[in-house]
Automatic annotation (TrEMBL):
This is EAL domain-containing protein. It comes from Dechloromonas hankyongensis. Residues 154-224 form the PAS domain. Pfam families: EAL (PF00563), GGDEF (PF00990), PAS (PF00989), Response_reg (PF00072). Keywords: Phosphoprotein. Residues 466-721 form the EAL domain. The lineage of its organism: Bacteria, Pseudomonadati, Pseudomonadota, Betaproteobacteria, Rhodocyclales. Residues 21-135 form the Response regulatory domain.
Length: 755
């Protein structure tokens, strides 16, 4: 029986019957008629029987309330009928009428539970009164039985409701000991009610709440002033299976005093306290999750921006009181987008999580590391004695990141750009201080990444949030004089000659300084500004090629990056042809660099487009090669000229590593397909030597030169030409022109995301 059916069963209470049935049993019809006339009433039904058997048959129907019974009947005696009634539990009153005047028959009749004994010749009024009395008596008995049944029902119903209640219901005596507790306690706390009856409430209340609940558990008040809805934590019975889900159940409790009832309606003596406790653990958990979500980043479980600002503001108040300084760091993972695009969001997320753990480990307990969103993190160092303290932490972070991350089967090297700002030197406002650190971080990005720098007032004028970058970028595109094209030499290490250049755009923001293409190219792609920017790059590149030709460097090819969005343009060929024609450049001098990820999008369509592009005569190279695991067989179909092995492979060349085999394989297969190979990101002499051994002779990287502005390019080329040997391209002062003097971290082994 389920709880609802049980409830209905319990609610079925018999009702009081008002109509009464009288059975007249007499063998003489004149008596039966006379009695009927005397007793007739709207509220009564009168039935007759002339023999004992007939009477028994009527009585068996069970509807009779009163029997007017003649003792002398033709078949069986009235006394036998009464005996039968007793034997068969027939619940009907009996008034015996008899012509027999002996006292014996009266005694017999009364012994057989007759209600009254009357002589047949009695006064009719006596008969009427006797019947009225018998029926009234019966009615009273019925009423009593009904009240008792109702009480029983009510008791069972309430017990049922209390036991079925989802809440814990209890009563305590004056000393705070349980006198009753419903069965809910066993599912909630793991105790059987009998284990707790007689025990003090502190047996089950969490000690942390003793003080705060003592009034509720000793509540004497009733009505509105009584305790309602206070939070109480109960302890689960130790070692019960539920205790494993958590040792504490949080409830909301209402309680009130219980008093003896008093005949005059006034409250009697205080008996104890009754209470109802509702389990709100789930709600509590949900509230905690919501509160956590409001102030934390769910991926890394670090504080989010809101909590960070809050802590920063508090720390600033304390620092001001103690006349101390504090520092804010803004960290941004370098080339994180590439990791995400290449290996997918799951790996990207894992990298962010592990990056957070590693950075956190470089900080002290009182420091706060927060995730601002995306690949941006901030750290609060609330107690620093001088700016050098912060540099030490930044160095430590950069150094920790030199160890690769192991994500699944893959090793990643990740670097970060860090901006620093100090309170109160740079700002006394929390948001502003974060912005200062952010601006400093952008500077690091703009000047080569993988380093740190402190905020300088000249950076202050630019507020480089996403929106203002977008607005400023529009302005820059319109005005056209904020972009610069830098050129990074590509060397044939065997011949010791510069054989190519890669054109890399720079945005010289009027207030923020140099901004990295990693920062603004994605925004340019999203906003469509990339089209105008690329047109500018192509024209500048062709102008540079013409200039080189004039100065005797006509053999040098020039690589230009083409973003995927531009690749979809219908007028792409024309856009490339216009500057080539304008500056009379042979198409094969121009090399369009497209990323490997582009090739993997819609192969058939891309094959056709690449072919069309090739038909103009320009060369095509595949940038960041190796990051997408595309099959080399594919490359033949794409009819590209060159592949650029991604710098992440080169970074691992310090020690024998998978990269050895990968580079060797790429070089071998590329040779079979008549594809040229160049390796980017070459930074050390050791890498040059290994790459040469691996059969890679074309290289590009900081070891030879950083990207150079046009003005310095010619000097570099002249010097390189004069030296004539690969070894002479070792870094020398003057060629590293992307001024990184303010970036104090070593970039000896910069390690953006890699294998
Ligand atoms: N750590 C290290 N880095 C080295 C080394 N040698 C060169 N690099 C850097 O590696 C990046 C190579 O360019 P990319 O892979 O095409 O990656 C480029 C390219 O995807 C994009 N980009 C640059 N210029 C343009 C452009 O004109 N158009 C488009 N669509 N994208 C561009 O922005 C990316 C970043 O450019 P940059 O910041 O100039 O960063 C450049 C270059 O400065 C080295 O030895 N070590």
């Amino acid at each position: 029986m389920n709880a609802i059916t049980a409830l209905y069963e319990l609610a079925r209470i018999p009702s009081l019957q008002t109509h009464q049935n009288i059975l007249i049993v007499d063998d003489e019809s004149r008596f039966r008629l006379a009695y009927r006339e005397l007793l007739a009433d709207d509220e009564r039904t009168i039935d007759e029987a002339s023999t004992g058997q007939e009477a028994i048959a009527r009585l068996k129907e069970g509807r009779t309330d009163l029997v007017i019974l003649d003792l002398k009947l033709p078949d069986i005696s009235g006394l036998e009928i009464m005996e039968w009634m007793t034997a068969h539990n027939i619940d009907a009153s009996v008034i015996v009428f008899s012509a027999d005047k002996s006292i014996n028959s009266a005694i017999h009749a009364l012994r057989h539970r007759a209600f009254e004994f009357l002589r047949k010749d009695c006064d009719p009024n006596d008969m009427i009164h006797a019947v009225d009395r018998a029926l009234a008596n019966r009615q009273r008995d019925q009423e009593l039985a009904l009240v008792s049944a109702q009480l029983q029902h009510s008791e069972r119903l309430h017990r049922f409701l209390v036991e079925q209640s989802p809440d814990m219901i209890f009563t305590l005596d004056r000393q705070g000991r349980f006198t009753f507790i419903n069965g809910r306690v066993s599912t909630l706390l793991g105790y059987e009610p009998r284990e707790l009856v007689g025990q003090h409430y502190t047996r089950v209340v969490d000690p942390r709440d003793y003080e705060h609940v003592q009034y509720a558990f000793n509540e004497r008040r009733v009505g509105e002033r009584a305790t309602s809805n206070i939070e109480v934590r109960f302890k689960r019975k130790p070692s019960t299976p539920r205790a494993r889900n958590g040792a504490v159940v949080t409830t909301i409790l209402s309680s009130q005093g219980v008093y003896e009832s008093h005949p005059l309606g006034q409250p009697g003596a205080f008996l104890g306290t009754s209470g109802v406790a509702r389990d709100i653990s789930e709600r509590k958990k949900a509230e905690q999750t919501i509160a956590f979500q409001a102030f934390h980043d769910l991926l890394t479980k670090l504080p989010n921006r809101t909590l960070f600002v809050d802590r920063l503001e508090m720390a600033m108040v304390q620092a001001s009181r103690r006349k101390e300084k504090l520092a804010v760091m803004f960290l941004d993972l370098d080339r994180f987008k590439l990791v995400n695009d290449t290996y997918g969001h799951q790996v990207g997320d894992q990298l962010l999580r592990e990056f957070a753990v590693r950075v956190r480990a470089c900080l002290r307990t009182g420091d706060t590391l927060a995730r601002q969103g995306g690949d941006e993190f901030t750290a609060l160092l609330p107690t620093i004695s001088n700016k050098e303290d912060v540099s030490v932490v930044a160095e430590k972070i950069l150094s920790e990141l030199r160890k690769p991350f192991l994500l699944g089967e893959t090793q990643f090297l990740a670097t970060t750009s860090i901006g620093l700002a100090v309170y109160p030197d740079d700002s006394a406002n929390a948001e502003e201080l974060i912005r200062c650190a952010d601006m400093a971080m952008y500077q690091v990005k703009g000047q080569g990444k993988n380093g740190y720098t402190a905020f300088q007032p000249h950076m202050h004028t630019a507020n480089l949030d996403r929106l203002s970058v977008e607005n400023d970028l529009r302005k820059a595109v319109k005005e056209g004089n904020q972009f610069e094209l830098h050129f990074q030499p590509q060397i044939d290490a065997d011949l010791g000659k510069v054989v190519g250049l890669e054109a890399l755009i720079r945005w010289n923001h009027p207030r923020a300084g140099m901004i990295s293409p990693d920062v603004f190219i994605p925004i340019a792609e999203e906003t469509g500004l990339i089209i105008a920017i690329s047109d500018w790059v192509l024209r500048e590149a062709c102008a540079q090629l013409a200039h080189l030709k004039q100065h005797g460097f006509g053999e040098i090819r020039l690589g230009v990056n083409l973003s995927p969005r531009e690749f979809d343009r219908v007028d792409l060929l024309e856009r490339i042809r216009i500057p080539l024609d304008e500056f009379r450049i042979a198409p094969e001098s121009l090399e369009i660099e497209i990323t490997e990820s582009l090739l993997m999008k819609d192969v058939e369509n891309i094959v056709a487009r690449v072919k069309r592009l090739r038909s103009t005569g320009v060369h095509i190279s595949i940038d960041d090669f190796g990051t997408r695991y595309s099959s080399l067989n594919y490359l033949r179909r794409f009819s590209v000229n060159r592949i650029k092995i991604d710098q992440s492979f080169v970074r691992d060349l310090r020690t024998p590593h998978d990269s050895f085999a990968i580079i060797q394989a790429i070089v071998g297969i590329a040779r079979n397909f008549n594809l040229h190979v160049i390796v980017e990101g070459v930074e050390t002499e050791q890498q040059v030597a290994i790459l040469k051994q691996l059969g890679c002779n074309e290289m590009q990287g900081y070891f030879f030169s950083r990207p150079l502005p046009s003005a310095k390019l010619m000097d570099f080329l002249k010097l390189a030409n004069r030296s004539g040997s690969g070894e002479s391209f070792a870094p020398r002062p003057g060629f590293h022109t992307e001024g990184r003097d303010h970036i104090q971290a070593s970039t000896q082994n910069p390690t953006p995301a890699g294998t």
